[in-house]
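Structure ticket #2291
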Amino acid sequence: MSQNKQPLKPGEKILFTVAGAFVVFAVIAFIVMQIFMANSDKPLFETKTHASLSAEGQLGSRLFRESGCTTCHRALRNGTNMGRTADLDGIGSRRSLDWMYAFLTEPVKNYGAQTIDHAPGQRSAAYVAQMPKKDLHAIATFLSELISEQGSSSAAIPPKGDSPFIDSMVETWAPKEWKEKYRDIRDDPETLRQANEKATKELQQP
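Resolution: structure written out below.
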């Protein structure tokens, strides 16, 4: 014998309505964000970088633009926001000149995996590896001179000064053993300097 379905209670109706509205809002927000990223000429998040370009770096900057690299990438605030590795501002703090030149000449071999756009057979950027080696070296030099400022999201070095919110969270939630075992390197400028140098070198490794 079948049982009649029980009607939803007022509280359940409210709960389902709120949950449905939240899902709809999330979908709309995601679509708006994608449209904004595709059409905006500004980065989604502020990236504090600087560039002191050498003569070869200036040549590389021109080649970067004229060769169509800004179709998929962004450098010196020019280009697109689309893609995981699109924003190259600050990449000189993460990758060395040698690594970038090696990647541009033989993308798959030096990246260690199949790339989305630069691999042979890809329509979008496979042509890059066929460019003259001197042009690729100039582009690599240009990219290596795009440096992150301290505290940038693309920098290995954390921001200067205190972080009250993080400090309060650590004070509240960190186990007592951590407080006894670890010390705040901000209290020791020399230790902080060494940690910054180590982090920067690790990020520049191939």
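Closing remark: The CA atoms of residues 185 and 191 lie 6 Å apart.
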